[in-house]
Amino acid sequence: MTTEDHVTEAGDPLADRGRPRAYTIAHLPGDGIGPEVTAVARECVDAVAVRHGFVVEWRTYTLGAQHYLGTGEVLPDTVLDELRKADAILLGAVGSPEVPPGVLERGLLLRLRAELDLYVNLRPSKLRPGVAGAVARHHAADLDFVIVRENTEGLYAGAGGTVHRGTAFESATEESLNTRAGVERCVRYAAGLASRRRGRLTLVHKTNVLAHAGDLWRRTAEEVAAGAGIPLDYAHVDAACLYLVDDPARFDVIVTDNLFGDILSDLGAALTGGLGVAPSGNLNPDRTGPSVFEPVHGSAPDIAGTGRANPAGAVLSAALMLDHLGEPEASADLDAAVSAVLGSGAPAATSDWDDALQQALTEEAGV
Ligand code: IPM
Ligand code: MN
After folding, report:
1. What spacing in Å lies between the alpha carbon of 75 and ligand 2's midpoint?
2. Any idea what DSSP says for residue 168?
3. pTM of this prediction?
Protein backbone atom coordinates (compact mmCIF):
# COMPACT_ATOMS: atom_id res chain seq x y z
CA MET A 1 0.00 0.00 0.00
CA THR A 2 2.82 2.37 0.62
CA THR A 3 5.61 2.95 -1.78
CA GLU A 4 8.74 4.71 -0.76
CA ASP A 5 9.29 7.27 -3.42
CA HIS A 6 12.34 9.25 -4.20
CA VAL A 7 14.05 11.56 -1.79
CA THR A 8 14.99 15.01 -3.01
CA GLU A 9 18.61 16.00 -2.79
CA ALA A 10 19.37 18.94 -0.60
CA GLY A 11 21.23 21.80 -2.24
CA ASP A 12 24.35 23.18 -0.68
CA PRO A 13 25.03 21.63 2.68
CA LEU A 14 24.05 24.13 5.33
CA ALA A 15 27.37 24.31 7.01
CA ASP A 16 26.19 26.83 9.55
CA ARG A 17 23.01 25.00 10.40
CA GLY A 18 24.23 21.44 10.63
CA ARG A 19 22.25 18.70 8.95
CA PRO A 20 19.70 19.76 6.35
CA ARG A 21 16.11 19.90 7.54
CA ALA A 22 14.29 16.75 6.48
CA TYR A 23 10.55 16.14 6.23
CA THR A 24 8.58 12.99 5.65
CA ILE A 25 5.46 13.87 3.73
CA ALA A 26 2.64 11.40 3.23
CA HIS A 27 1.15 11.80 -0.23
CA LEU A 28 -2.46 10.70 -0.64
CA PRO A 29 -3.16 11.27 -4.34
CA GLY A 30 -6.73 9.95 -3.99
CA ASP A 31 -9.25 9.94 -6.81
CA GLY A 32 -10.16 11.78 -9.99
CA ILE A 33 -7.92 14.76 -10.58
CA GLY A 34 -6.23 14.32 -7.17
CA PRO A 35 -3.22 12.41 -8.55
CA GLU A 36 -2.83 14.85 -11.45
CA VAL A 37 -2.78 18.02 -9.36
CA THR A 38 -0.69 16.67 -6.50
CA ALA A 39 1.93 15.38 -8.94
CA VAL A 40 2.48 19.00 -10.01
CA ALA A 41 2.51 20.18 -6.40
CA ARG A 42 5.12 17.57 -5.53
CA GLU A 43 7.39 18.68 -8.33
CA CYS A 44 7.13 22.25 -7.12
CA VAL A 45 7.95 21.23 -3.54
CA ASP A 46 10.94 19.25 -4.77
CA ALA A 47 12.17 22.25 -6.74
CA VAL A 48 12.05 24.65 -3.78
CA ALA A 49 13.48 22.03 -1.43
CA VAL A 50 16.66 21.93 -3.47
CA ARG A 51 16.90 25.69 -3.51
CA HIS A 52 16.23 26.18 0.19
CA GLY A 53 18.32 23.29 1.39
CA PHE A 54 15.83 20.88 2.89
CA VAL A 55 15.08 17.28 2.10
CA VAL A 56 11.66 15.78 1.42
CA GLU A 57 10.92 12.09 1.66
CA TRP A 58 7.59 11.30 0.02
CA ARG A 59 5.53 8.27 0.99
CA THR A 60 2.53 7.50 -1.17
CA TYR A 61 -0.63 5.87 0.17
CA THR A 62 -3.29 4.66 -2.23
CA LEU A 63 -6.44 5.49 -0.30
CA GLY A 64 -9.72 6.61 -1.83
CA ALA A 65 -12.53 5.26 -3.99
CA GLN A 66 -10.50 2.75 -6.00
CA HIS A 67 -8.93 1.34 -2.87
CA TYR A 68 -12.31 1.12 -1.15
CA LEU A 69 -13.99 -0.57 -4.12
CA GLY A 70 -11.14 -3.05 -4.38
CA THR A 71 -10.70 -3.87 -0.70
CA GLY A 72 -13.66 -2.54 1.30
CA GLU A 73 -11.18 -0.50 3.37
CA VAL A 74 -11.45 3.26 3.78
CA LEU A 75 -8.73 4.07 6.31
CA PRO A 76 -7.15 1.02 7.93
CA ASP A 77 -5.79 1.63 11.43
CA THR A 78 -2.34 0.50 10.35
CA VAL A 79 -2.25 3.20 7.69
CA LEU A 80 -3.53 5.80 10.13
CA ASP A 81 -0.71 4.85 12.49
CA GLU A 82 1.81 5.40 9.71
CA LEU A 83 0.23 8.71 8.75
CA ARG A 84 0.58 9.89 12.34
CA LYS A 85 4.34 9.58 11.98
CA ALA A 86 4.56 11.86 8.94
CA ASP A 87 5.52 15.52 9.27
CA ALA A 88 2.64 16.52 6.99
CA ILE A 89 0.09 15.00 4.65
CA LEU A 90 -0.64 16.21 1.12
CA LEU A 91 -4.01 14.99 -0.09
CA GLY A 92 -5.37 15.30 -3.64
CA ALA A 93 -9.08 14.58 -3.41
CA VAL A 94 -11.32 11.65 -2.63
CA GLY A 95 -14.68 10.72 -4.07
CA SER A 96 -16.19 8.90 -7.00
CA PRO A 97 -19.71 8.45 -8.34
CA GLU A 98 -19.26 4.71 -7.74
CA VAL A 99 -19.02 5.14 -3.96
CA PRO A 100 -22.15 6.09 -2.00
CA PRO A 101 -22.02 9.63 -0.56
CA GLY A 102 -20.59 9.84 2.95
CA VAL A 103 -18.44 6.70 2.91
CA LEU A 104 -15.18 8.41 2.01
CA GLU A 105 -16.13 11.80 3.40
CA ARG A 106 -16.87 10.46 6.88
CA GLY A 107 -14.53 7.48 6.77
CA LEU A 108 -11.47 9.29 5.48
CA LEU A 109 -11.68 13.09 5.51
CA LEU A 110 -13.66 13.60 8.70
CA ARG A 111 -11.90 10.73 10.41
CA LEU A 112 -8.51 12.28 9.68
CA ARG A 113 -9.76 15.63 10.96
CA ALA A 114 -10.92 14.02 14.22
CA GLU A 115 -8.11 11.50 14.77
CA LEU A 116 -5.33 13.98 14.04
CA ASP A 117 -7.15 16.79 15.90
CA LEU A 118 -7.08 19.08 12.88
CA TYR A 119 -9.16 21.70 14.61
CA VAL A 120 -8.49 24.58 12.22
CA ASN A 121 -9.39 24.51 8.56
CA LEU A 122 -7.44 27.38 7.06
CA ARG A 123 -8.90 28.64 3.79
CA PRO A 124 -7.28 31.71 2.27
CA SER A 125 -9.10 33.58 -0.49
CA LYS A 126 -6.93 35.98 -2.43
CA LEU A 127 -7.80 37.53 -5.76
CA ARG A 128 -4.56 37.49 -7.71
CA PRO A 129 -3.77 39.96 -10.50
CA GLY A 130 -4.90 38.66 -13.88
CA VAL A 131 -7.56 36.38 -12.44
CA ALA A 132 -11.23 36.96 -13.22
CA GLY A 133 -13.16 36.50 -10.01
CA ALA A 134 -16.92 36.09 -10.01
CA VAL A 135 -17.51 39.82 -9.48
CA ALA A 136 -16.03 41.99 -12.23
CA ARG A 137 -15.67 45.14 -10.10
CA HIS A 138 -13.54 43.45 -7.42
CA HIS A 139 -9.89 44.50 -7.32
CA ALA A 140 -7.06 42.29 -6.17
CA ALA A 141 -6.19 44.84 -3.46
CA ASP A 142 -9.65 44.47 -1.91
CA LEU A 143 -9.99 40.74 -1.78
CA ASP A 144 -7.51 39.00 0.46
CA PHE A 145 -9.03 37.27 3.45
CA VAL A 146 -8.65 33.99 5.30
CA ILE A 147 -11.42 31.84 6.67
CA VAL A 148 -10.54 30.03 9.89
CA ARG A 149 -13.11 27.29 9.95
CA GLU A 150 -13.57 25.24 13.12
CA ASN A 151 -12.93 21.74 11.80
CA THR A 152 -13.86 19.11 14.39
CA GLU A 153 -17.18 20.15 15.94
CA GLY A 154 -20.47 21.81 15.00
CA LEU A 155 -22.76 19.90 12.69
CA TYR A 156 -19.84 17.75 11.55
CA ALA A 157 -19.42 16.09 14.94
CA GLY A 158 -21.78 13.27 14.03
CA ALA A 159 -24.28 13.84 16.84
CA GLY A 160 -27.89 13.06 16.05
CA GLY A 161 -29.78 10.16 14.62
CA THR A 162 -32.86 8.73 13.02
CA VAL A 163 -35.88 7.26 14.77
CA HIS A 164 -39.07 5.69 13.41
CA ARG A 165 -37.26 5.05 10.18
CA GLY A 166 -39.54 4.17 7.28
CA THR A 167 -42.69 5.46 8.96
CA ALA A 168 -44.58 8.69 8.34
CA PHE A 169 -43.09 9.96 11.60
CA GLU A 170 -39.51 9.19 10.76
CA SER A 171 -37.38 11.89 12.36
CA ALA A 172 -33.81 12.82 11.67
CA THR A 173 -31.73 15.12 13.81
CA GLU A 174 -28.25 16.58 13.36
CA GLU A 175 -26.97 18.30 16.46
CA SER A 176 -24.38 21.03 16.42
CA LEU A 177 -21.75 20.33 19.05
CA ASN A 178 -19.86 23.36 20.34
CA THR A 179 -17.49 23.08 23.26
CA ARG A 180 -15.94 25.99 25.08
CA ALA A 181 -12.48 24.46 24.66
CA GLY A 182 -13.05 23.71 20.97
CA VAL A 183 -14.33 27.17 20.16
CA GLU A 184 -11.66 28.86 22.22
CA ARG A 185 -8.70 27.14 20.60
CA CYS A 186 -10.06 27.90 17.16
CA VAL A 187 -10.66 31.58 17.90
CA ARG A 188 -7.25 31.79 19.56
CA TYR A 189 -5.62 30.59 16.35
CA ALA A 190 -7.67 33.07 14.31
CA ALA A 191 -6.77 35.97 16.61
CA GLY A 192 -3.08 35.09 16.31
CA LEU A 193 -3.37 34.98 12.55
CA ALA A 194 -5.21 38.31 12.46
CA SER A 195 -2.51 39.95 14.53
CA ARG A 196 0.10 38.75 12.01
CA ARG A 197 -2.04 40.09 9.14
CA ARG A 198 -4.10 43.29 9.07
CA GLY A 199 -5.38 42.93 12.62
CA ARG A 200 -9.07 42.51 11.74
CA LEU A 201 -11.00 39.57 13.10
CA THR A 202 -14.63 38.94 12.21
CA LEU A 203 -16.77 36.35 13.91
CA VAL A 204 -19.39 34.96 11.53
CA HIS A 205 -22.32 33.11 13.07
CA LYS A 206 -26.08 33.33 13.33
CA THR A 207 -26.43 34.47 16.93
CA ASN A 208 -29.92 35.87 16.36
CA VAL A 209 -31.32 32.38 15.76
CA LEU A 210 -28.74 29.85 16.97
CA ALA A 211 -28.94 31.36 20.42
CA HIS A 212 -27.11 28.67 22.40
CA ALA A 213 -24.15 28.01 20.14
CA GLY A 214 -24.10 31.64 19.03
CA ASP A 215 -23.85 32.86 22.59
CA LEU A 216 -20.96 30.53 23.35
CA TRP A 217 -19.13 31.61 20.20
CA ARG A 218 -19.76 35.32 20.83
CA ARG A 219 -18.64 35.32 24.47
CA THR A 220 -15.59 33.22 23.69
CA ALA A 221 -14.56 35.31 20.68
CA GLU A 222 -14.97 38.55 22.65
CA GLU A 223 -12.79 37.25 25.47
CA VAL A 224 -10.09 35.87 23.20
CA ALA A 225 -9.98 38.98 21.00
CA ALA A 226 -9.78 41.25 24.06
CA GLY A 227 -6.97 39.11 25.45
CA ALA A 228 -5.12 39.33 22.14
CA GLY A 229 -5.67 43.10 22.00
CA ILE A 230 -7.45 43.09 18.65
CA PRO A 231 -10.88 44.44 17.76
CA LEU A 232 -13.61 41.93 16.97
CA ASP A 233 -16.20 42.49 14.25
CA TYR A 234 -19.30 40.39 13.92
CA ALA A 235 -21.53 39.46 10.97
CA HIS A 236 -24.44 37.08 10.71
CA VAL A 237 -23.67 34.43 8.13
CA ASP A 238 -26.32 35.58 5.69
CA ALA A 239 -25.07 39.15 5.85
CA ALA A 240 -21.49 37.89 5.51
CA CYS A 241 -22.45 36.34 2.14
CA LEU A 242 -23.77 39.69 1.01
CA TYR A 243 -20.71 41.60 2.25
CA LEU A 244 -18.32 39.11 0.66
CA VAL A 245 -19.83 39.92 -2.71
CA ASP A 246 -20.55 43.58 -2.07
CA ASP A 247 -17.60 44.77 0.00
CA PRO A 248 -14.98 42.04 0.56
CA ALA A 249 -12.35 44.59 1.63
CA ARG A 250 -13.94 44.63 5.08
CA PHE A 251 -12.64 41.11 5.77
CA ASP A 252 -9.18 40.07 6.89
CA VAL A 253 -9.62 36.97 9.10
CA ILE A 254 -13.05 35.37 9.43
CA VAL A 255 -13.56 32.86 12.22
CA THR A 256 -16.61 30.68 12.07
CA ASP A 257 -18.10 27.30 12.79
CA ASN A 258 -17.66 24.18 10.72
CA LEU A 259 -20.64 24.32 8.38
CA PHE A 260 -20.65 28.09 7.92
CA GLY A 261 -16.94 27.87 7.08
CA ASP A 262 -17.57 25.11 4.58
CA ILE A 263 -20.19 27.18 2.77
CA LEU A 264 -18.38 30.53 2.95
CA SER A 265 -15.15 29.05 1.64
CA ASP A 266 -16.80 27.93 -1.59
CA LEU A 267 -18.06 31.49 -1.99
CA GLY A 268 -14.52 32.68 -1.30
CA ALA A 269 -13.25 30.35 -4.02
CA ALA A 270 -15.79 31.66 -6.54
CA LEU A 271 -14.79 35.24 -5.76
CA THR A 272 -11.11 34.51 -6.38
CA GLY A 273 -11.14 32.46 -9.57
CA GLY A 274 -12.95 29.25 -8.74
CA LEU A 275 -12.41 26.02 -6.87
CA GLY A 276 -9.36 25.21 -8.99
CA VAL A 277 -7.30 27.88 -7.25
CA ALA A 278 -8.54 27.45 -3.67
CA PRO A 279 -6.16 25.87 -1.13
CA SER A 280 -6.77 24.58 2.35
CA GLY A 281 -4.83 23.44 5.36
CA ASN A 282 -6.41 21.20 7.98
CA LEU A 283 -4.21 22.23 10.85
CA ASN A 284 -3.26 20.77 14.17
CA PRO A 285 -1.82 24.04 15.52
CA ASP A 286 -0.58 22.29 18.68
CA ARG A 287 1.53 19.99 16.47
CA THR A 288 0.57 16.84 18.32
CA GLY A 289 0.40 15.22 14.88
CA PRO A 290 0.70 16.03 11.19
CA SER A 291 -1.57 18.50 9.44
CA VAL A 292 -3.37 17.71 6.17
CA PHE A 293 -3.20 19.99 3.14
CA GLU A 294 -5.63 19.63 0.27
CA PRO A 295 -7.16 21.76 -2.47
CA VAL A 296 -10.74 22.76 -1.68
CA HIS A 297 -12.05 21.22 -4.89
CA GLY A 298 -13.13 17.62 -5.00
CA SER A 299 -12.04 14.84 -7.33
CA ALA A 300 -13.81 16.39 -10.37
CA PRO A 301 -14.47 13.02 -12.06
CA ASP A 302 -15.89 14.81 -15.10
CA ILE A 303 -12.49 16.15 -16.11
CA ALA A 304 -10.24 13.49 -14.55
CA GLY A 305 -7.82 12.08 -17.09
CA THR A 306 -8.45 14.83 -19.65
CA GLY A 307 -5.27 16.70 -18.70
CA ARG A 308 -7.23 19.84 -17.93
CA ALA A 309 -7.12 19.90 -14.13
CA ASN A 310 -5.94 23.17 -12.60
CA PRO A 311 -3.13 22.40 -10.13
CA ALA A 312 -3.06 25.90 -8.57
CA GLY A 313 -5.14 24.91 -5.53
CA ALA A 314 -2.86 21.94 -4.89
CA VAL A 315 0.33 23.99 -5.28
CA LEU A 316 -1.03 26.68 -2.95
CA SER A 317 -1.98 23.96 -0.46
CA ALA A 318 1.61 22.74 -0.65
CA ALA A 319 2.68 26.34 0.03
CA LEU A 320 0.55 26.33 3.19
CA MET A 321 2.18 23.03 4.11
CA LEU A 322 5.72 24.38 3.75
CA ASP A 323 4.82 27.41 5.81
CA HIS A 324 3.42 25.15 8.54
CA LEU A 325 6.60 23.05 8.42
CA GLY A 326 8.67 26.16 9.07
CA GLU A 327 9.84 26.83 5.53
CA PRO A 328 8.30 30.28 4.90
CA GLU A 329 10.70 31.25 2.09
CA ALA A 330 9.99 28.07 0.14
CA SER A 331 6.30 28.61 0.76
CA ALA A 332 6.49 32.17 -0.55
CA ASP A 333 8.28 30.91 -3.67
CA LEU A 334 5.39 28.57 -4.48
CA ASP A 335 2.84 31.28 -3.82
CA ALA A 336 4.70 33.71 -6.06
CA ALA A 337 5.06 31.11 -8.82
CA VAL A 338 1.30 30.52 -8.85
CA SER A 339 0.69 34.27 -9.00
CA ALA A 340 3.17 34.63 -11.85
CA VAL A 341 1.50 31.90 -13.90
CA LEU A 342 -1.99 33.22 -13.21
CA GLY A 343 -0.84 36.75 -14.01
CA SER A 344 0.35 35.82 -17.47
CA GLY A 345 -2.86 33.98 -18.37
CA ALA A 346 -3.49 30.60 -16.80
CA PRO A 347 -2.84 27.67 -19.14
CA ALA A 348 -5.71 25.26 -19.83
CA ALA A 349 -3.62 22.08 -19.74
CA THR A 350 -2.18 20.66 -16.51
CA SER A 351 1.13 19.91 -18.24
CA ASP A 352 1.43 23.53 -19.41
CA TRP A 353 0.76 24.64 -15.86
CA ASP A 354 3.52 22.34 -14.71
CA ASP A 355 5.99 23.79 -17.23
CA ALA A 356 4.98 27.36 -16.47
CA LEU A 357 5.36 26.83 -12.70
CA GLN A 358 8.81 25.30 -13.09
CA GLN A 359 9.78 28.19 -15.35
CA ALA A 360 8.48 30.73 -12.82
CA LEU A 361 10.37 29.01 -10.01
CA THR A 362 13.56 29.06 -12.07
CA GLU A 363 13.11 32.75 -12.82
CA GLU A 364 12.49 33.51 -9.14
CA ALA A 365 15.72 31.77 -8.30
CA GLY A 366 17.47 34.01 -10.82
CA VAL A 367 18.87 31.00 -12.64
C1 IPM B 1 -14.64 20.50 2.11
C2 IPM B 1 -15.59 19.45 1.65
C3 IPM B 1 -15.81 18.46 2.79
C4 IPM B 1 -16.43 19.23 3.93
C5 IPM B 1 -16.65 17.25 2.44
C6 IPM B 1 -16.16 16.53 1.22
C7 IPM B 1 -16.76 16.31 3.62
O8 IPM B 1 -16.78 20.01 1.20
O9 IPM B 1 -13.52 20.16 2.52
O10 IPM B 1 -15.00 21.68 2.06
O11 IPM B 1 -17.65 19.43 3.98
O12 IPM B 1 -15.68 19.64 4.82
MN1 MN C 1 -16.74 22.17 1.15
Report:
1. 20
2. T
3. 0.95
